[in-house]
Design goal:
With 327 residues, the protein is an alpha/beta fold. It has eleven helices and eleven strands. It is globular and about 55 Å long.
């Protein structure tokens, strides 16, 4: 299989590209003109330079490609509606237009956020429809999913949607961002940190993405990937803090944090200033997001591949290397 991977220089995309090549597949990686790609080149990837928001730069990108794995997007908790929709919805539309009639499969890596933010997602099934909430990341992902489905339903290209839970591993945003914030200021818990982390370890997720892109049963389907860990946010953040001599401080009830995040976003987003509190983060850390993974397990044979204890050992080793002496 010849695979195109967008976002191949990112946290998930780099692991996916490496694993695809390890399994004997050819990989073409899309990168911005200025991005460093030496690691991908050294591992044998073909590099194409382009910008998903500039359609003319994508011409020929999917020539000779069997499967497109689309991971690139705006992966952060802050920004304007235009920023999120340009990087998520418009970028996906441009890639679909380029891939249709060329590649035979299109795997869109969405997010559990597409199923709605602000309420508990525990038990939400893979067959349930996406739901908007007014959180721009959530809404852009939901609309991009609808776009992907429209291409599949029209017979333009066989599509599969992947919705990861909160992706963790050495260097993930759920490691770096939390520790960086702890080193600058107190980090509170939301709803006492009692809700599950709803994590999927990056290796487990990549295994699921490849299954979704190579198995015939996955055509036209959406799959959730979440590990069967039981750790709460309090347990996890306390563990991370212990690695750098910090601990969570204070608690903000969800009913207060959610509207406060909205107010801060309205004030700071237009100024291009990252808010210290956003609804996306509150919705992730302050609600139960244990989405149902029954379809992925039954149809793809997917399972958790890395235990919680092993994952924490790998994360701890990374933190000790990258945050040595910082307390």
């Amino acid at each position: 299989m010849k695979a195109l991977v967008t976002g191949a220089t990112g946290f998930i995309g780099s692991v996916l590209a490496e694993e695809l090549m390890a399994r004997g597949h050819g990989v073409r990686a899309l990168a911005f003109p200025e991005e460093k790609v030496s690691e991908l080149v050294n591992r044998g990837a073909e590099i194409c330079r382009g910008d998903l928001t500039a359609p003319e730069s994508l011409r020929g990108l999917c020539d000779g490609v069997d499967t497109v794995f689309h991971l690139a997007g705006r992966v952060t908790d802050w920004g304007t509606r235009k920023q999120f929709y340009t990087a998520i919805y418009n970028a996906t539309e441009n890639l679909l237009k380029e891939a249709a009639g060329k590649a035979s499969r299109f795997v869109y890596v969405s997010s559990l956020a597409a199923m709605g933010m602000g309420g508990h997602l525990k038990g939400v099934k893979e067959t349930d429809p996406p739901r908007k909430s007014g959180v721009y990341y959530n809404d852009a992902k939901a609309d991009a999913e609808a776009l992907v489905r429209s291409y599949h339903d029209a017979g333009a290209i066989a599509c599969t949607i992947v919705r990861p839970a909160n992706v963790t591993g050495p260097g993930s945003v759920w490691v770096r961002d939390i520790i960086d914030q702890m080193l600058k200021m107190p980090v509170p818990l939301f709803d006492r940190g009692r809700h599950p982390t709803s994590f999927v370890y990056v290796d487990s997720l990549v295994d699921g993405i490849i299954r979704a892109g190579t198995m015939d049963v996955a055509r036209g389907r959406a799959y959730h990937f979440r590990d069967d860990w039981t750790a709460t946010w309090k347990e996890y953040i306390t563990f991370l803090g212990s690695l750098v001599g910090k601990r969570p401080r204070g608690n903000i009830p969800f009913r207060l944090a959610w509207p406060l995040g909205l107010v801060m976003e309205k004030i700071l987003n237009p100024l291009q200033v990252r808010s210290p509190l956003t609804r996306l983060n509150v919705g992730v850390l302050g609600r139960n997001n244990d989405i149902d993974t029954s379809l992925a397990r039954a149809e793809l044979g997917w399972r958790t591949t890395v235990s919680y204890s092993e994952a924490m050992e790998r994360i701890a080793a990374w933190v000790r290397t990258h945050y040595a002496g910082r307390r």
